Amino acid sequence: MIRVLLVDDQPLIRSGFRALLEVEDDIEVVAEAADGGEGVALARRHLPDVALIDVQMPVVDGIEATRRIATDPALASVHVVILTNYGFDEYVFRALRAGAAGFLVKDIQPEDFLHAVRVAARGDALLAPSITRKLINRYVTQPVDAAASRTLEGLTNREREAVALVAQGLSNDQIAERMVISPTTAKTHVNRAMAKLRARDRAQLVVLAYESGLVAPRSR
Q1: Are 65 and 36 in contact (CB under 8 A)?
Q2: CA 110 from chain center: how many Å?
Q3: Please, are residues 128 and 108 in contact by the beta-carbon 8 Å criterion?
Q4: Which domains are assigned to the chain?
Q5: Does the pLDDT at position 218 exceed 50?
Q6: What phi and psi, each to the nearest 5 degrees, are found at residue 148?
Q7: Who contacts 112 (Cβ-Cβ below 8 Å, separation ≥6)?
Q8: The pTM is what?
Q9: Each residue of 76-86: pLDDT tens digit?
Q10: Which domain of life is it from (predicted)?
Q11: Which residue has the higher pLDDT, 207 or 37?
Q12: Which of 16, 2, 4 minimizes the C-alpha distance to 51?
């Protein structure tokens, strides 16, 4: 059973998502919250698999709520998905950087919404190549972070290569083709790199790759 926490300051939005989720045999809404602070408290109490969090809320917004969840070792199994009305913007970027696994626009089709919840529950990032490219664009003018560069020292050459390809927006199948390895091996390289770098998902791998200088903007 996939356990879901809803965090949104609009009761009608929460009710709509709950109605969609609770008709599914494999999904259960365990709690609702009207602001990020309450959402974090409920995440600690219920340990949901997926926390659907609105990016803009009063009191404690979705960015801060994401940061609190992502930095709490007790909540390492909670996958945050950001909800937004506007698509990819600076708020969403900041939430991804804070540790969100991806984001959904609130006018998403019901079947796509349910699929996204299941994808997030598996621990996969909701980060399409188009969104990865926007993350890349965000880092074009950023200087290399020496501390971030040092974090990559524990990676093998193949793991570094896999991370660089993730940062270019490639899927595991595309990485396998580029590296001339099986998709399973590609996934293993990516997962080991994530574990070594303590990255929650592919979004954070992209951020680390650009902050560290592993991938330069000119290589896009």
Answers
A1: yes
A2: 20
A3: no
A4: 2-126 (3.40.50.2300), 142-212 (1.10.10.10)
A5: no
A6: -65, -35
A7: none
A8: 0.73
A9: 899 999 998 87
A10: Bacteria
A11: 37
A12: 4
